[in-house]
TrEMBL record:
Residues 240-462 form the Malic enzyme NAD-binding domain. SMART domains: malic, Malic_M. PANTHER family: NADP-DEPENDENT MALIC ENZYME (PTHR43237). Residues 95-228 form the Malic enzyme N-terminal domain. SUPFAM superfamilies: Aminoacid dehydrogenase-like, N-terminal domain, NAD(P)-binding Rossmann-fold domains. This is Malate dehydrogenase (Oxaloacetate-decarboxylating).
Amino acid sequence: MAITRLPSAGFSITIRIAVTADASSIGRLTTSVGEAGAIVTALDVVDSDPNSVIVDLTCDTADAGHADQVVDALTALDGVDVRKVSDRTFLLHLGGKIEVTSKVALRNRDELSRAYTPGVARVCMAIAENPADARRLTIKRNTVAVVSDGSAVLGLGNLGPAASLPVMEGKAALFKRFGGVDAWPVVLDTQDTDEIVQIVKAIAPAYGGINLEDIAAPRCFEIEARLREALDIPVFHDDQHGTAICVLAALTNALRVVGKRLEDVRVVVSGAGAAGTAIMKLLLRQGVGDIIAYDREGALHRGLTGLNSAWQWLAENTNKENYSGDLPGAIRGADVFIGVSAPNLLTGDDIAQMAKDSIVFALANPDPEVDPREARKHAAVVATGRSDQPNQINNVLAFPGVFRGMLDAHAEEFTEEMALAAARAIADVVGEEKINPTVIVPSVFDPRVAPAVAAAVRAAAHNPSPLPAADPGPADLPEIAANASATP
């Protein structure tokens, strides 16, 4: 059975099966699953008697339809009785993934009197007299709001606030696990820019930072810009800046592997929406040789009409040779491909036309722009956004440490110096002596990552330094326009 999508733990199922108690029964089960294109990850004997064995077989599948095919293949075997199928992802989400716990025990009247009335009144009065004390005496010191309107949930589109909640819960769990930051989902039942800005401004006093998440372009750009102007706490759109930080970190080490310099390479970016635009801005700050931006309108080039202001700026400030063809043509001879767009846009043959020792970051999830197995036949370094492939470029490498550093520094804004410092910190955690084609970023579970990023961000917050000169210089790079387009 040909399975074009890769099996993933995100589609893991556990199947309870009764089989006849003979020597070959278990082997027939695992063979059938393998022939169906799934990957067996566990097999546990639940019960047995002289005539039968009951087992729980756990396997990774490619999608819901593939899971059904695996079950059908097992059901068709002689002597096999499929009793129950459990989707392990849905089981993990039952009842939600986060909860509130108290930091104080409240074991007796004395503790209650200090944590709540009458003692709490003294703390309220202290904050009223000096509002800055809220960072010291309340949850504001370590709490972030994860804000979404559900308009761009993962790669799934406009699903609305309720359907975005599992993602925001997951984000909050990652904040706590990797950065020690208390985060809470704030999903809004509006997609009106003015209303979102007003709501976030109104709830901001309780938080030390705002993490915008899964808000569609172009509104996400305007929302972030207006909130940054209005609030005295950092506002960070992770789809933009978290992605850009991680890509720059990974590219720094990938270039070390192949022995190329950023200022000498030509980069093609597929997807000129929130993530792609932020990536290109950060690469331009670092002095990249050239970039071709590719989106629904094709390669952004001078002379292309009907562009919004952000795309117009990209057309005027990238693509030195003014290329105007298709995506396979754009990557011909290119050193680096970065995809933050849509699945299956390229083939292995396309990658073969890139420059020697090419680098491919195919980050569309769950299906990359090019099959990584095919890309690795031709590219020197390949990375994806998938956890089951080498070189996973995952925003969790960045945002927990970035917010940890900003909260510790009592920062009032997120800056580009912080982004560059965070990217350097992530790259350096691997160490030049340990990088290789399959290790260009640290594991998301490497305990050194978040502390290193936090320390770098704190240093950048306390000692901001001018960005290195690049062409174009910082003064020539505009803010992302409010009418920029979404990634396809």
